[in-house]
Amino acid sequence: MPIISPSDLLLPTEPGLRALARELYALAAQQPIISPHGHVDPGLLAEDQPFPDPARLLVVPDHYLTRMLLSQGVPPADLGVPSVDGSPVETDGRTIWRRFAAHWHLFRGTPSRLWLEQTFRDVFGVSTPLGPATADAVYDELATRLAEPEFRPRALFERFGIEVLATTESPLDDLGRHAKLAADGWGGPGGRVVTTFRPDDVVDMEFDNWSANVDRLAEVSGEDTGTYAGYLAALRARREAFAAAGATSSDHGHPTARTLDLGPAQAAALYDKGRRGLADAADAEAFRAHMLLEFARMSLDDGLVMQLHPGAVRNHNRWLHTRHGRDVGGDVPQATEYVHALAPLLDAHGNDPRLTVVLYTLDEDTFTRELAPLAGGYAALRLGAPWWFLDSPEVLRRFREAVTETAGFYNTAGFVDDTRAFCSIPVRHDVARRVDAGFLARLVAEHRLTGDEAAETIVDLAYRLPKQVFKFGGGPA
């Protein structure tokens, strides 16, 4: 059997389809990267310091990797993941790398392996296969590259062809790193690195230290959060500051997609209950749901695109959360309902073209049954790409197959990498572009699209749509 060359990675294996897909992929590969949602530390680009050793760059912060090793009995502390309880963790980068390489076989068939191998090859020019016997050789090759000026963050940003990168910050962030980026000509409105407004820590009453966070919100906004009206004023003030720092969207990571319009009096009473420490889980869910309506109203005023990322049960692995904190691989997906959950928001604003709500899911079953019909029927809705547990070639293909017949291509929002791993950004976008090339090639072969239509569509999916939906300028022709 002939070996598929790296240039044909993920493209169809049937020769005729592969030839069509190659042509379409070549068009997509030329497009700049629009990265409208992610979690890269803006300080990385603001300071532009050399990356640390390969382990601290590629293993320690990547919960896709540390999570898999934990499932096989390797504790995160042995991989250098910082602890929050003061317990010791491994600090030697080479030791961490060797442990990781010794378990490389665990990642066979996973997107993590695909992304890492592309990163080694395409970003760092390292072609030595990783494994226990080659751990030191690969580590040394990577470390050599990281010491070179061409591998500093801003130089890589240029080489990756990133046009816009959106980071994600809390309203409590002073946005100082974004101010530095703006001063250097990299940030601010229309800049290359912009922020995103993520208010979960001051909205979710079940968030650690919620009430203290609301007190801090008063300090950074200059508004009195002692009342519900003052709380809303504080959120509006921070949204204004974020927009001044270049933000074009907000992001909401709620456990469910539920929305609710309580009315001012009932919302104020619930807010006061939470501030007194008397709110229960049902109260917290109701307040989160109501705040999505409030944020939709704010978006009508300030134009920020709303992103809704529901469906994650946070900190399900309680031992991991206690030992190492949030966002280290302890979350799991749950079934998520959208049709009834979103009805209050859609009744109020779903047909208003001034509002854009980008919906994501961790529940693949909802693609056909709920999300595509919703996006195909409301002017305000767009579908976000598969993310997190669904960010794989297989699900990206199934997404196109599931939603296109009802929502089309133009009710989707382009690809988002949703990553903390800066060096994986180009390879993740490349995977999405390859999958789309294969899907469109099949439509051409089936005489459902002309070649010209497919060529236009793949450029729209890769570049023009995310620019338009997330208000970075431009849009589909």
Automatic annotation (TrEMBL):
Keywords: Isomerase. Its EC number is 5.3.1.12. Gene3D superfamilies: Metal-dependent hydrolases (3.20.20.140), uronate isomerase, domain 2, chain A (1.10.2020.10). Transmembrane segments: none annotated. It comes from the Bacteria. It is an enzyme of class 5 (isomerase). InterPro entries: Metal_Hydrolase, Uronate_isomerase. GO terms for molecular function: glucuronate isomerase activity. GO terms for biological process: D-galacturonate catabolic process; D-glucuronate catabolic process. It catalyses: D-glucuronate = D-fructuronate. The keyword Isomerase applies. Pathway: Carbohydrate metabolism; pentose and glucuronate interconversion. PANTHER family: URONATE ISOMERASE (PTHR30068:SF4). Belongs to the metallo-dependent hydrolases superfamily. Uronate isomerase family. This is Uronate isomerase. It comes from Micromonospora sediminicola. The lineage of its organism: Bacteria, Bacillati, Actinomycetota, Actinomycetes, Micromonosporales.
